[in-house]
Amino acid sequence: MAANQTPAQAFEVHDASVLKWARDVLDRCSSPRVMQTEVIQAVERNAVWRGEECLNLLAPEAPTSPTVRRLLASEVGTRAAEGHIGPTERWFAGTKYIDEIEALCVELLKEVFQCKYADHRLVASMLGNMTVYAALTKPGDPVMTIAQPFGGHSSNRIDGPAGIRGLHIHDVPMDPVELEVDLEAFAQAARQVQPRLVALGASMTLFPFPIREMADIVSEWGGKIFFDGAHQLGLIAGGQFQNPLKEGACVLTGSAGKTFSGPQSGIIVWDDPELTKPITDAVFPALAATHQVNRVAALAAAAAEFLAFGKEYMAQIVSNAQALGKALSERGITVLGAHKGFTRTHQIILDVRAFGGGLEVAQELAKANIITNKNLIPCDKSTDWDHPSGLRIGTTEVTRLGMKEAEMESIAELIVTVLEKREPLEVTRKRVVEMRSAYQKIHYCFDGQ
Ligand SMILES: *Cc1c(COP(=O)(O)O)cnc(C)c1O
Q: Is it the case that residue 330 has pLDDT exceeding 70?
């Protein structure tokens, strides 16, 4: 071992000072019961701060309705139901009502996504992507996916499920100005690589993808398009974003807890009956066993909310994102895609190099109760992930709290105040708490109606 290397037993991925804080707290506790109280109090602190006092502009988050939250704590969450729906398809007896809950969920998802098949058992969208790679590729296959500086997610890269599957990963060529696929460069690269699968959809997505054109190209050698709609899932269901299955993608995965605004978990939908066996074989018994039936119930309830409110809710999210992009741009902030209306999704992306970079800005904003995240943008390298140039903002939560275009002006003003250090952070924080205090109710749901 080289002299400057840390010994193996000292290696720790978590922040050592936070773990030490926890150890000290527990050491001071007089009993396990007091330890439990410490846990509950930490949850309470977050509920008050993030739940009531912050402007949460994190693009992957959404507040769930009271009904969805209640179902997450339901009795059925203590039950085990390994296997497929129906008495002979399970390991365990006694699943009569669980079968009903799960079947309702599957049928609701099929209705919401206007598709032939849906699976409800993925506890994360990461596992949905693993399902796709397990079902549709073999180790060593070439695939094309989007690099991180263009919004690609690790699940489709070497460090995630695609890498675990042992795939050869090539980049989908992207245009750094238009923030869209460079179709000509793609046609050329794809014909050389002949990928089995091309993964579209990204954690940073502002504009639609040329799915149909790309599907036509890869069909020359029997390749397929897979759309990772983790972020856009709700926008797709609400008719505010292109519908990948209708445009030539063979499978769509997504996070139920991002724009879809259900319980954090994964969804996978498809139309082709030939894919049903490979996909469901990967879901069970490979990637799901005890799949949290409380979460399935909450997902079904969220899908029903979507049927009633999805269209209106998702349209407002996109309008709010466009309004926020415009308001920030008018105040001199560099917003990506400004020349094409900023965004067609729930996200806007800022270039904050002038203000110290994404890490610095996100940390400062958080001190003023404005929650965002640092983000790689096309001028960065994948390895810049810890100190990237960009900032990602999403409008899902503020929209569900009832904010409209006028409130986006106020939010832009608060953000610029922090970026330009116009006043002490403590003063901005007070103004954020005051603004947020008027928006405490969850909209676009049946609760309180
Ligand atoms: C968030 C995200 C995922 C992972 O989703 P989880 O539900 O958090 O597991 C996968 N792909 C993309 C593009 C994402 O943004």
A: yes
Tens of pLDDT, residue by residue over 92-149, are 999 999 999 999 999 999 999 999 999 999 999 999 999 999 999 999 999 999 999 9
- Whole-angstrom distance, CA of residue 60 vs CA of residue 71: 21
Give SS3 for 426: helix
Q: Copy the structure tokens of residue 427.
A: 């003063």
Spatial contact of 228 and 155, defined as CB atoms under 8 Å apart = yes
**For the segment 153-169, what is each residue's pLDDT rounded down to a tens digit?**
999 999 999 999 999 99
Enumerate residues lining ligand 1, CB below 6 A. 60, 124-126, 129, 153, 155, 201-203, 228, 230-231, 255, 266
Residue with tokens 């605004």: 261
Region 310-437: CATH code = 3.90.1150.10
User: Virtual CA dihedral for 198, 204, 209, 215, nearest 10 degrees?
Assistant: 10
Q: From atom 7 of ligand 1, which residue's Cα is the shortest distance away?
A: 125
| Atom from ligand 1 closest to the CA of residue 156 | 11
> Rounded to whole angstroms, how far apart are CA atoms 60 and 258?
5
For 403, the token pair is 């904010």
Could you tell me the two tokens for 336? 């990506």
**Ligand 1 atom closest to 202 (CA):** 13
Distance CA 227, CA 271 (A): 13
Specify the residue for token string 């109606």. Answer: 449
Token output for 275: 């894919």
On whether the CB atoms of residues 303 and 262 are closer than 8 A, the answer is yes
Ranges of each domain in the chain: 68-303, 310-437
Domain 68-303 fold is Aspartate Aminotransferase; domain 2 (3.40.640)
Query: Is pLDDT at 1 greater than 50 in this prediction?
Result: no
Cα separation, 401 vs 57, in Å, equals: 12
